[in-house]
Specification:
The chain has 90 residues and is an all-alpha fold. Helix content is 62%, strand content 0%. The model has no long low-confidence stretch (mean pLDDT 92).
Length: 90
């Protein structure tokens, strides 16, 4: 049984705020609240995959200490912009 879009968004929001490190809770929760509802299904699937990555890796991508894998570049660009205050939540 496949999950409907609203259920998927709720699940992704919950996974965004229940991370391993508090910094990622804050960063990914803000991104999820601001963007998930408007993302196309393909991008939601990519974000779902991103949430399976290690928090320390994601944090290093946000802070620019390491480059994110190509598959996550678009999302990480938006996450980083939001986290660094370059854009406001929509």
């Amino acid at each position: 049984m496949s999950e409907d879009r609203q259920t998927k968004i709720k699940r992704l929001k919950m996974r965004s705020m229940r991370r391993g490190i508090k910094e990622m809770d804050v960063i990914l929760s803000a991104y999820a609240d601001a963007h998930l509802a408007a993302l196309p299904d393909e991008t939601l699937a990519t974000y779902d995959a991103l949430l399976s990555e290690n928090d320390h890796d994601i944090f290093s991508w946000v802070t620019g200490q390491a480059e994110a894998p190509d598959v996550y570049m678009g999302i990480m660009s938006d996450v980083t912009a939001l986290a660094t205050g370059l854009t406001r939540p929509r």
